[in-house]
Amino acid sequence: MAQDPAKPCLSLDASPDTLPGTERPREPQEVAARLRRRKLESLRQRIRRIERSVGTELEGSAFRPPVYDDSPGKTPGAEEQAPAKIVVPGLTWHLGIAEVDGLLGPEGLEIGGVHEIKPALQEQGTDWAATWATAFIFSLTLAIRRCAMTDGRARRPILCCRPAAMANEFGSLYGPGLRALGLDPKRLIIVETKTATDTLWAIEEGLKSRGLALVLGALQEVELTPARRLALAASAYRVPCVLLTHPRTETMAAIATRWRVGPLPSAPHPFDPHAPSALRFTVDLERCRARPLSAETASFSLEWCDEALCFRLAPGVADRADAARESGSGAG
Amino acid sequence: MRRANPEAVPDDRPFALVEAGSHGIVIAAANAQARAEGIRPGQSLADARAIYPGLLTRKIERRKDRAALFALARWSGRYGPARNVEGENGFWIDITGVAHLFGGERQLMADLVSRLRAFGLTVRAGLADSIAAAAALARFARLGTEGFAIAPAGHMREALRDLPVEALGLADETILLLKRLGLRRIGQLYDLPRPALARRFRSLAPGRRKVKNSTELAGAVLARLDAALASAPEARHALPETRRAIVRRIFSEPLISSEGIESAVADLAASLCRMLDQAGRGARRVRLCFYRVDGTVAEVRAGTSRPCREPKHLLQLLAPKLPEIDAGFGVDVLTLEATALELLDPLQGRLSAGLEEWTEADTAQLIDRVSNRLGAERVLRLVPYESHIPERAEVRIPALMAKDPLEKRGAERSKVSRLSAALLRPPLLLAIPERAEVRIPALMAKDPLEKRGAERSKVSRLSAALLRPPLLLAIPEPITVLAEVPEGAPARFTWRRVTHTVVKAEGPERIEPEWWRMLGPLARPPGPRDYYRIEDDRGGRYWVFREGLYDRDPEAGPPVWYMHGLFG
């Protein structure tokens, strides 16, 4: 773990100008305000770490200082980055949109954390399967984003655990389709269990093994104690866990983020007005450790780009996108 | 005996195995129906087809047959330790001192025959004082429905008297000579003065040069006869015993406590791994047997996805299963055997085994643990299969069986194929997600990643523009189409009792059934499928298809719509 803090800084030194969203601040007060904000942010992170490390001895060793620490003597280009805008390709796990990533804090999605994904609530009489599938595919895209990172673990396999009944109901993972989405099916190890207890066991076992990039699980509900166990395992072994749970069950405890995901009609196809085009999601970020508990849910309309393997804000849904931008800049 | 693949061989129709002969293709073997039609091994295929035009044939695979025969001979060790393959299609077992374990010779033979029949084999068995006599009985005696003949001990002459001389297993040339002399039954040879045979052979042989030869031939006849009558000993080599990697502990006091058993298992695992280390092997399957005091045996099995000789890992796999074992009145003997071995060269240990270090062994250990607890069929990897039918384009094989697909070779190759896919995609399709892939056989090929790099990239390039959903229903579910558009996607449909209004649709992509798989008689051959990618008013994306065509075949009925996958 010793080399970790150095890595991001090095890459920043090397290419300060090529970073996306590079902006020169104009006023010295503004610089001071940003520095203060960043200091606050790093302190908040430390508090979060301390909170999380209660009960885990391993957490101490896995401690990773904030990436953008206020140490003097850095290149000014790197120093003056606004945290909301900084996206270091490959070193953080993020969605690839400044507006959303700004809410997640400088480190993006937490590597050693549990991320809960819930399908959007639907009114009675609508189709569950599509919503489930959308949420599941959103979690797959998060996995793809994880694989796009350049750390050593991103190249490892992905474990996908579901009760077999769920696979039968919502369809089993299909290699050619995954490939079209951007995920190499060869990386997948699929576990289809008889019971939910077995699924939880397999997820935990996966988190504890050193050989995985990410563990993806789908369950009806995760009780308090198993949720805590998973969170501890994820943070101790620094393997991220993405969990899809039923929309109407209790939300999980001890999670890093919670997303609520639903389908969204796609944009008109550029060449064929009758054909569906790129996948779109409505994504609500309900909870995030980087944000205060009182922060309200941030909503976005996202579009998955299967060629760049990243998200972008869905254009054309003007009001939602604007709202997202406002809330994004407000938190950053 | 030649049926390695029972599904490929119809039982109810004339069927023959063929091979290339010097004058074209000849029949190598034929089933009972084919023989009833007059088809004989040795006939040319053209003649056989003239007799029965609908004859199904397959190429004979002698090597595999041979291997299967050896495997069968090895299996038969339960009836006697000394056994080996005999001739082209038989094997012998020395059951000296074994019969009483089965309750007598007759019971033993009945057991053997019924077990072999359960394998789907046609069995003829013989039991006699000598191997040659037993083989003669098995091949030439008249057998009842029970399928075996037993010659009473010490009465070989009577038992073999009526069998044809071919039963002695002589060369064709010798048999021809014997027949010319009018010696057709083995019994006729009994009373013949021994030197007379050579003289008679000589009288038949055309030239003087054959004098020596005919003496030899006569000698062979007499030797075979002596061997069959058990009057002269016959040396036969038994199959060498395969060395088993097995360790055992015998306890003077039966073990009852679970702690005792666990520590004993740890001890066994350590010594098994030492043994494997010396042999340069790793275990793929291990079996732990508990021999209880009351004579019963319990066993625990575990498998690994790559050869392993780490006692710690073996113990991890076995330990969760130990509590299920009922020690009963105690365990006398514990054995741990590696039932499947693979070469495993010694590996150099890592100097810095930190958290960031990773080898495939880590993943393999996870697969082992999960597979052994939940069952190997529940931990799967996706392996593409060469078929354009969507549900057949991929097979799910247990991760324990699969070779690690993330090995370097594979990763490089997929990079190349992705590049080529990106380059060759027609520009019009740029906005469409691509790279559906239809690839390689996995169950057929022993090694799913070995041969077909070239093929795979070819197919993937072809199908680069195909669209497939990430979630596929294992069985397509029928949907009710409310508003049908002829030759187009449905405007409204009901699936799982929810009505969807289709806003956008793309298609059709026509997928024809694989005619080469429909050669046998089928109740209803599947029609072509027209796939559509549709989106409903709420943004749900589905993959539906229509099976059958409008107005094409009135007998097949109207086309049926199915839901097959979800795009999210």
Number of individual domains of chain B? 5
Q: Which two chains have the most extensive interface, and how many residues on each?
A: A-B, 75 and 76 residues
- Which percent band covers the strand fraction of chain A? 15-25%
Reported for the largest beta sheet of chain B, the result is: 7 strands, antiparallel
Largest sheet of chain A: 9 strands, mixed
Shape of chain B: flat
- Cα(first) to Cα(last) distance of chain B is 51 Å
CA radius of gyration of chain A is 20 Å
CATH class of the largest domain in chain A: Alpha Beta
Output the structural class of chain B: alpha+beta
How much of the sequence lies in strands of chain B comes to 25-35%
What is the 3D form of chain A? globular
End-to-end gap of chain A: 28 Å
Q: Helix tally of chain A?
A: 11
Number of strands of chain A: 10
Uncertain segments of chain A are 1-23, 54-87, 318-332
What does this structure look like?
The complex is a heterodimer of chains A (332) and B (568). Chain A is α/β, with parallel strands linked by helices and 332 residues long. Chain A has 2 domains: 6-83; 114-331, 3-Layer(aba) Sandwich (Rossmann fold). Chain A has 11 helices and 10 strands. Chain A has helices at 6-14, 28-52, 58-61, 76-79, 98-104, 128-147, 164-170, 175-181, 196-208, 224-237, 318-331, and strands at residues 114-119, 158-163, 172-173, 188-193, 214-218, 241-244, 257-263, 280-288, 298-305, 310-313. In chain A, helix 5 (98-104) packs parallel to helix 11. Chain A is globular. Helix content of chain B is 30%, strand content 25%. Chain B has helices at 32-36, 45-51, 62-75, 105-118, 131-140, 156-160, 172-180, 187-190, 194-204, 210-228, 258-279, 311-318, 360-374, 408-424, 453-462, and strands spanning 15-21, 24-30, 56-59, 83-86, 90-93, 125-127, 148-150, 245-255, 281-292, 297-308, 331-343, 379-384, 394-398, 471-478, 480-483, 492-495, 498-511, 529-536, 541-547, 560-566. In chain B, the strands form 6 sheets. A 7-stranded antiparallel beta sheet of chain B has the order 14-20-19-18-17-16-15, with no helix packed on it. Classes of the chains: A alpha/beta (332), B alpha+beta (568). Chains A and B meet through helix 6, helix 7, strand 3, helix 8 and strand 4 of A and helix 13, strand 12, helix 14, strand 14 and strand 17 of B. Strand 3 (172-173) of chain A pairs antiparallel with strand 14 (471-478) of chain B, so a sheet runs across the interface.
